[in-house]
Structures are given as structure tokens and as C-alpha cells.
Amino acid sequence: xxxxxxxxxxxxxxxxxxxxxxxxxxxxxxxxxxxxxxxxxxxxxxxxxxxxxxxxxxxxxxxxxxxxxxxxxxxxxxxxxxxxxxxxxxxxxxxxxxxxxxxxxxxxxxxxxxxxxxxxxxxxxxxxxxxxxxxxxxxxxxxxxxxxxxxxxxxxxxxxxxxxxxxxxxxxxxxxxxx
Length: 179
Prior knowledge:
Blueprint (H helix, E strand, L loop, with lengths): L12 H9 L6 H5 L1 H4 L1 H8 L6 E5 L7 H10 L3 E7 L8 H15 L2 H4 L2 E6 L11 E7 L2 H6 L3 H11 E10 L8
Parallel strand pairs: 1-2, 1-4, 2-3, 4-5
């Protein structure tokens, strides 16, 4: 499917978020999940604004990346995503391969995504860059950190990585009652 470019910068923050969410570069399957995940409303609620340095934590397949990277690119911001910690000698080869595939996917369309910066991240990774981010988004990850006893490290990393007044945005599944 041909893609022309990321959305043009807009003075109205809500319109810019809507333009990124409606991007033609997003698959029909990903857009079909918008009615349940409400990305535009969530990003407006979180306070996403032009010029922000954004970090997406453990982006998985890139559902949020397809919205956030073009938004940052079109609106004078910067976009980062955590990725498998290639400095960890115990990192499985499958994790290295997944990181490379993620990087290649977004590097293939710089006119849409701009630069997608990857940062080593994991239970044994070095801390994130200090006071670097205006917005850190974690989607559907917290339960895994709690279950693996690494949540203290993760939240300490986020705390030191946020600029003063920065926003930590958490999207999380609803747990079944009693769990």
C-alpha cells in the first residue's frame, strides 16, 4: 500500500493526534482495534503535545509505534522505543532477530516514521537516559513485570528517565476478578 508521508504539523494538538491515528500507513487490522483501545482519546488524556521526546516501552508489534513515531516526526518531537538489550550476553537469538526486524520495519519508511531510536531495555539493562523524556508510554506490560519481580527496576528507570514534570502513561489489561 503506497504511503505518501506522515501527517503535516498542525497547530491544534487534537487534530495532529487524530491525523496520526488515522494514518494510511496503519493496517486495517490495527485500525480495527482503535474502537476498543481508543488511541486518540488516550493520547489526548495523557497530554501528548508537539515537540515531545516520547519513549514507548516494549512496543511488541508496533501498534502504538505506528501512531507515535509519525506524530513525533510531523510535530517536531523525537521518538524512542525500548528494544531487546543487545548488551545482555544471555539475550536469546530470537530476541535479537525480533529487534532487527522491528528496526528494519520502521527504518524502511523514514518519510512516515522519521527516526525510530532504539534503547536497550530489560531486567538487566543499564538505566535509561536521565531526564530525557517528556512522555513514557507502557502498554500492557506492567503485569509481566510484577509477575517476574522486575517492576521496581522498571519504574525506577522510568522515574529517572522522565524530565521534570514528565508523564508516565500506563495502559493495562483489566485483570480477571480475584487475580
